[in-house]
Amino acid sequence: MNYRNEIKKKQQDICRSEQKLSVEKLKKRRADTRNKIQLGGLVVKSEMSIFSKEIILGSLLHAFSMINEDENYKTVFSSLGENAFMENDKNG
User: Fold this and answer.
1) Would you say 34 and 44 are in contact if contact means Cβ atoms under 8 Å apart?
2) pTM summary value
3) Residue 25, domain extent
4) Which terminus of the chain has fewer CB atoms gathered within 10 Å of its CB, N or C?
């Protein structure tokens, strides 16, 4: 194989790698967007959307610190969330 063919093959390999990277970045961006939409939906579902974004963030930060201080809050918050989802299923 001469050098030109080797160079052309390497360029094709680079192009394929760049395409794969581009597809993976797109998949990651779509997954991130989906996650953010779902989290926003939870804010609406919890009826917290009537409050300012500062209050919502402060509430989440406070809940986070409560969980970090006492793992039992995970169970409490999980039960509350499960009940809210079940209530929605009954009404919805």
Assistant:
1) no
2) 0.71
3) 1-45
4) C
